[in-house]
Design a protein that fits this description.
2 domains; alpha+beta; 467 residues; Aminopeptidase; 11 helices; elongated; single chain; Alpha-Beta Plaits; 31% helix; eight-stranded antiparallel beta sheet; six-stranded mixed beta sheet
Length: 467
């Protein structure tokens, strides 16, 4: 019911929707320093104000929660469905070729620009779904609330602030993933660790190691400075490690030392198997060099044993596990800084439904302690799971099938979204299966037909869940 009307409405408003997305995407809403009344800086607050102006323009009741979150309500009835999206973006970064990051442009059926797919484009698609229901006069007996956050990329403190004063809706969807439905988000055990040791000047030795930028990113580059070794030996050993790993090593002399740059391939920590961890490969190389015996060299070998090359499931730590519903545990060694007397590092593990403190965190703590390494904490984020046989999930899958003609199904992700801590929340769109939007990378884009499809599907879901 209403399918033809909804499809026509969204198609008739195609350009309006794209224009509104571009309005938001021209705003650099990367988190910046706190300003009075702007908890995440000027950019996120400007994006929030622009989105509120659009929602108010289209006749929705709006509310601002201290510039953390804004909401738009379809009506004043009892809340039945929340749509949870975000307006903040990751840094623009380098390497853009189609357009500048904050100058959105349409080309070949795609809308390019930072935020077009994550998550401003989908947020506007959800707003247009609400417009369709409102302006077509589709009868509903419950309220739909669009919730727009501004700190999803840096910890989701915005949503914590919102739910401190507002209850969850009975059902929540977030257009911050892929269709059909992501009903499982793995748990997470991501920790920093430290060690201190006595400096030793015996040669050969390592001066320093540096790798990684963020705990949730597999490092594509890693650096070490060594003294007292022949460069031919390092090149020969490096060539053998390259054969095993595919990670390249650039070696050059510098002030009586040799500098080693490992060049691999970065990826998100939730999919470490898709990258080439330059840090693990560098440690493998260093552990094979004839370094003088010292607390530091022993620690380097221990780290290489704890995080061996290509062990992306935690086998060396004794935590590899999997289940039929959520798949295998993943482990990414993501950051390390070491000098002559101390080190600090970090790892990021995504755990299946069967993972818990006893079989993940506790074994890692014991392993690290045996090597003289101290973990900063032992708390885990539990996995999130909404059963696929609920009427809520069935309704979402049915709408997807009706509008796409494709079979609907549930899936699991190692990443986390806004709905992770919500009892009955799932990621639902906005991208279609198999689409790589270059999210968080250069030349991020959204497929325009997919944004339109998302708006249509969401309008149908509102009609079905709130009738």
């Amino acid at each position: 019911m209403y399918k033809e009307k909804i499809e026509k409405y969204i198609e008739d408003h195609r350009q309006d929707m794209l224009d509104d997305i571009c309005l938001l995407c021209r705003i650099n809403s990367e988190r910046s320093a706190y300003q009075e009344g702007k908890p995440f800086g000027d950019g996120p607050s400007r994006a929030l104000a622009q989105a509120m102006a659009l929602a108010e323009k289209y006749g929705f009741s709006i509310n601002n929660y201290d510039n953390y979150v804004a909401t738009a309500d379809l009506n004043d009835k009892e809340r039945r469905l929340d749509i949870l999206a975000h307006l903040d973006v990751v840094p623009a970064g380098d390497g853009w070729t189609v357009t500048e990051p904050f100058e959105p442009v349409e080309r070949d059926g795609k809308l390019y620009g930072r935020g077009t797919s994550d998550d401003k484009g989908p947020a506007v698609a959800a707003l247009y779904a609400m417009r369709a229901v409102k302006e077509l006069g589709i009868p509903v007996s419950g309220n739909v609330r669009l919730i727009l956050g501004t700190d999803e990329e840096c910890g989701s403190s915005d949503i914590d602030h919102y739910y401190d004063v507002e209850p969850e809706a009975p059902m929540t969807v977030s257009p911050d993933g892929h269709f059909p439905v992501t009903n499982i988000e793995k748990g997470r055990f991501a920790q920093q660790f430290t060690a201190e040791f006595e400096a030793d000047t015996a040669l050969p030795r390592v001066h320093c190691i540096k790798a990684g930028t963020k705990i949730n990113v597999v490092p594509g580059r890693a650096f070490a400075s060594v003294e007292g070794l022949d460069d031919d030996l390092i090149r020969e050993t490096g060539a053998k490690v390259t054969e095993e790993t595919g990670v390249l090593f650039e070696i050059q002399g510098m002030n009586q030392t040799l500098e080693i740059n490992a060049v691999g391939e970065g990826t998100h920590a939730s999919t470490p198997e898709e990258g080439k961890n330059a840090l693990s490969a560098l440690l493998l190389l260093l552990s094979r060099l004839p370094l003088a015996d010292s607390p530091q060299s022993r620690l380097i070998r221990s780290l290489s044993e704890l995080f061996p090359w290509n062990d992306t499931e935690g086998g060396a730590l004794g935590i590899n596990m999997k289940d039929e519903i959520s798949g295998a545990l993943t482990m990414a060694f993501s950051m390390l800084e070491m000098d002559e007397s101390s080190m600090s590092g970090a790892f990021d593990s995504r755990t299946p439904i069967c993972g818990n403190k006893e079989n993940v965190a506790d074994p890692i703590c014991r392993k690290f302690a045996s090597c003289g390494i101290t973990l900063e904490g032992s708390e885990m984020t539990p996995p999130h799971y909404v059963k696929e046989d609920s009427e809520f999930i069935k309704t979402l899958l049915d709408a997807y099938e009706r509008y796409t003609g494709q079979k609907g199904y549930c899936s699991c992700t190692g990443g986390g979204t806004y709905v992770h801590s919500l009892k009955n929340g799932v990621a639902y769109g906005a991208s279609m299966p198999g689409t790589d939007n270059r999210m968080h990378g250069a030349d991020e884009f959204a497929v325009i037909d997919e944004l339109l499809m998302c708006a249509k599907i969401y309008a149908q879901v509102i009609a079905d869940l709130c009738r």
